[in-house]
Amino acid sequence: MADQLLIRAYNVGCGDCIHVRIPGPNDGFHILIDCGKKGGDDLLEKAVKHLEAQLPPGSAPGKKRLDLIVATHRHEDHIKGFDPQFFKNIEVKNIWLSVAMDPTHPQAQVVNSLHAFATQAMRELTDSGQALSPELELLASMYGVSNEAADKLLMETLPAVNGIKPRFVHSGMTHDLTLPPDTDIHILAPEKDVDHFYLGEEIDASLKGLQGLAPSRPTAGGGATATVDQQPANISATDFRVLQSRMLSNGLAFAAKETSIQNNLSVVLLIEWKKRRLLFVGDAEWEGEFKDGKHNGSWNVMWEKHRTTHLSAPVDFLKIGHHGSINATPPPATEETTAKKADGIHAVLDTILPVPTAGEAPTAQAVVSTEREFYNPIPECKLLVDLARRVNNTRHYGKGFEKKGILPATVWATTKAKKNKFFETYERDFLDHHQPLRTDLEFVIDAKDFVDVVIEPG
After folding, report:
1. What is the pLDDT of residues 434-456, one digit of tens each?
2. Same-domain pairing of 90 and 232
């Protein structure tokens, strides 16, 4: 593997933890893209220990060197594993965070206020003691204290220990990394003007109106977020209960919207190495068509900004976005309607990951870090089957189950999976088709703790 690039996607359940090793002098260049999951920490700790064993020696005795950490966005299934104990033996050279995570960034003030408001609303709901539906529990978990711990590690603890400063990165930004020969890294998202491209005027106006209804606290981003725990002196108890109810309802709505916005603020990287192009998209989402100054999906913005440059040609590898969610991979042209523009979002997938012509085999590769236990329907198997036509590292998981004597229905065994009939509704009809390599099913069938993708030089 001296002249092969390695992408290793660890099985951490519903989350991303991806090691990229670029071959070169001094034992190559090592990147960790995200380290998180839903649920407990056992798989994350196991993954980081395995990663540590693969890293080259650091400058201090007993330390290993990690050249770059990229935390794509602030959801726990991407940053929860950045625990100081996990990284105590790892010397980190560089840390990249989304520009939207910078609490002082002047062009993300409203987004930061929205995040603060949604965080407080969800925590107040959790602290209320009332029973929550599985959907609300999942939504509330995205604002847990583990996110704050990871933020502190990435922005304060790790930088202080390693004598570095985190960089809040955005599209078009140049870097000062010392990369191996014939290698470059391009940042395709997010845009620097976060509020302008991803928020939308209607959300901004609604948030400001809601904040004006109650006392407010300053946030780290310089905005203000409403509270619902103290009755203002100028309204009655009855009106205050109405206000509380309205703010809770708005808080839930804002939290649901804010989670999507955070996905769209993911750091997206295009790694170019020896004529190969590797695309890592975090949880970037797509929506309708791009509209300047409105709420946009990250894919829409990237296509608007980079379709004649970095996204104008096929890629050799795609990290499938958002654990296989349907809203994280642009739809193929076959789903385009006459009302859509020819150069719109439906042109993206067939440009960067085209279906081979008759008689030819695909050359690109892909991987999806996923688990069918938290979201439904994630992964979207119809999407995965379509992607399998476009890549060469696929697997027929139905045959894999049959060969090992595993009844597929027994795989989705949690109470939630059974109650929602995940297997019957979302998996059964697709197991007789090839899919890109999945971290969850590779573990179930072959007990693999990670999926490796090896890239040969061009």
Report:
1. 999 999 999 999 999 999 999 99
2. no
Phi, psi for residue 127 in degrees, rounded to 5: -75, -15
Burial-class residue 35 by CB neighbours within 10 Å (0-12, 13-18, 19+). buried
With H, G, I as helix, E, B as strand and everything else as coil, classify residue 247: helix
Q: Same domain, yes or no, for 237 and 360?
A: no
Total count of domains within the chain: 2
Element spanning 35, H or E:
strand 29-35
| Residues 396-428 pLDDT 10s | 999 999 999 999 989 888 888 888 888 999 999
Compute φ and ψ for 68, nearest 5 degrees. Answer: -155, 130
Q: Is residue 269 part of a domain?
A: no
Q: Is residue 266 part of a domain?
A: no
Q: Quick one: which H or E segment has residue 136? A: helix 134-141
User: 97 and 112, same structural domain?
Assistant: no
On whether both 32 and 133 belong to a single domain, the answer is no
Task: Give the helix ranges, DSSP H, for 183-273.
Answer: 194, 201-211, 237-264
In a domain, 53, yes or no: yes
Best CA proximity match to 438, nearest among 379, 398, 390:
379
d(CA 296, CA 298): 6
**Spatial contact of 57 and 66, defined as CB atoms under 8 Å apart:** no
Q: Which domain does 346 fall in, by range?
A: 5-104+144-193+274-455
Two structure tokens written together for 341: 């523009």
Q: Which two tokens stand for residue 407?
A: 């009844």
Residues 219 and 94 in one domain: no
Write out the H or E segment, with its range, that includes residue 123.
helix 109-127
Q: How many CB atoms lie within 10 A of CB 359?
A: 5
Output the CA–CA distances (angstroms, integers) from residue 58 to 3, 102, 216, 234, 293, in the order listed. Answer: 22, 28, 47, 61, 45
> How many CB atoms lie under 10 A from the CB of residue 163?
8
User: pLDDT-derived band of residue 223, with 50, 70 and 90 as boundaries?
Assistant: very low
- Comparing CA positions, the residue from 359, 446, 458 lying closest to residue 399 is 446
Residues composing the chain: 458
- Domain with residue 34: its CATH number is 3.60.15
The reply to whether 117 and 184 lie within a common domain is: no
Tokens in use for 364? 């690109």
